[in-house]
Fold each of these.
Amino acid sequence: MIGVVLASSLLVLTCASILSGETIRELPRGEASGAGNTYSYELVDRAPRAYLAGRLFQAASAGDAFSRILTPTFRIGREAVIEVVPRGWNDAGEDEELGSVTIAASKPGMVLLDVRTLRETFLVLNDTFYPGWVARIDGEPQEIHRANHLVRGVFVPSGQHRVEFSYEPRSFRIGLVVSAVAAMILVVIAAGPSLRRRVARRVRVETIP
């Protein structure tokens, strides 16, 4: 079971090999070699960092997701496993063209992708699924789905789009609000004497008979 989980993790996170001190027997997508107590498992196919999935499978648990990913018929880089396939979703044909995705920018805490889709597709970004990440398509917030149990994905409508993933944990957003409120208070305090003088002058003018 350990071998299955390790192999699955590598498949969806785009790594190329596993180093282990013991034989991993259940590795249908790898080739093993080794000497002594060290074994190397080279993955013969792995997903790109970002890809468009036109076919989705539903799996409520990690075990179900990994089992699906490790089946020989699972098409890495074209299919994905998510927790709930939404109503109205229609799988693409086996060889139907989906479009293209390119990574426009990537740095810690932010990934920008240019996506061109010919139909509604599911964009998989092989970066760890973790609380605090938010997604936007053309500036509009989108729900992030757990894809292949370990990584992130969003549904993208047909057309040309800019997709952004950014790390904005709740503590960060609270900090922004607190900073904004504090800035407003400082502005009011700084403007207080001047504001009082203007009000006083206006009162004097209005009370002159």
Note: The first helix runs from residue 2 to 13.
Amino acid sequence: MSTKKLQGKVALITGASKGLGKAMALALAEAGARLALVSRNLEQLNQTADAVRKLGADTAVFQADVTSEEQVLRLEKTVTKEFGRLQILINNAGMNLRKPVTDFSLDEWRQVMDTNLTSVFLMSRAFVGAVWRRLIPIVLGLVPGIVVGALLLSRLNGEWLKLFVYATLVPLILLQAAGLRRPIRLTPTVGAPFGMGLGVLYSLTTISGPPLALLFNNQGLVKQEFRAALGMIRVAESTLTAIAYYHLGLFTAPSLHLLVWIAPTVALGVPVGVVLIRNVDAEVFRRVCMSFDAWIVGFGLSKVLVSVGLAVAPGAYVVLAVVAIIDTALLTAFFGRRRGARGSSGAGASQRVPAGGPSR
């Protein structure tokens, strides 16, 4: 297992041709990041790229003026096509005129402000906002998927549908728990079909966590982006499904009475969850939630095998036992890897050279 903290992450650095930009590019390369290097000076930029490649990092150079809105928008499309989703954006491009500000001409003032401030706005707007645009195809795909799923639920045998869904979910959850990380480009051609399938799944079972986690974990989203993306999809799918259920007459008086009990617990659970996610390591929290999903779906699969007559209790619960054994082994391996990584980083820290470092 690689000990590089940024292995596979995509970083973009403006002003990467020299100085701090070049130094940060080398540091990120040593940490395992894939680098998009941006500058107006192509010759110096290529020199930085050569130094980065000697460290074994994947890199590409992009000549652009980051004070130009047109060039920044073109840069976002080119970098996204080359590297996929960006995880690290370093707005390093900057300049200064070494004379009193009272001696600046208006054009000089605008040049300094555009390079130091406007470029940050343009780059951040272009790259940070990209996550929302990528969710639109999923949300649009949810609509027909939820309609189809709700119609199936109202007309077909619900137990056989549950059997199919649970049998599909169990391997998805276990693959996720095993650390499956295959890069998936969230393009419209992927997002729309995924949204449709997600809509069918959610309207049939109100479960969508495992496939959503598999997709978003493979986008390399940072913690806040992950939560925002997940929250947006959750709101869309739950709202659309409630509307479909209402028009199909699937709400019953007993189910509505359950709201009296469910609503207060949700109101209590949300702030508790916020506290947990802020104070518990995100990866540990995510992995424990996966175990919860695996056991719940394993139990549901065992139960539905009995209800459709494919197995009898207690033999049907062998499925739950197998899921529990596999998940426990994966969970043990997960915490073992974390302990090993902490031990390696601690050993590396004890061998660091004094301030100033080695010459290169």
Note: The chain has two domains: 10-128, 130-342.
Amino acid sequence: MLTEMATVIRRRRLEKNLSETRFAKLVKVSPDMLSEIERGELDIDIATFFSIAATLETSCAELADQAQSLSQAKEFSQYRIKRRLTSLKQIANLQKQNQRLKTQLERIKRRRQELILKKEWTAETDQFQWHAQRERSLLALEARLVTVRHHQEEQERFLLRFLANRMSILTNKQTS
């Protein structure tokens, strides 16, 4: 509150158009002491405070009220500044969070695109695999047919040999 009182005294002195030197003579303090009082570096005693109030043609209570009001205004201003800083920090955090979410969204979009491409590739691969499986099945059927034909040929050869053998036996029996 010392700095607020110093501000009020300085304002009131300037309103009265008094120089520091002239005001110091009227209050009966040195100009250096008055300068320290107006900068809020020196706490004043009651006698000096009354002398300042009388020179400024006001009461000590009015100076104290003005200093109190100024103090409250500063506190309110500091409160608003703190709130503003808090709001700015929240905005900055929200912007960071928004940026992170954008990055995640981009990753998700890229991953989705990769999956779509992979799904298309998988669909082509599945189709290729289906054709390959069909070919394998056809080859297996052909192999079975070859095997069956081979067995049929063997059976035919066997039957032919059997028949040839039977015929030669019958022919031999008839000739004998």
Note: The helical segments are 2-15, 20-27, 31-39, 46-55, 60-175.
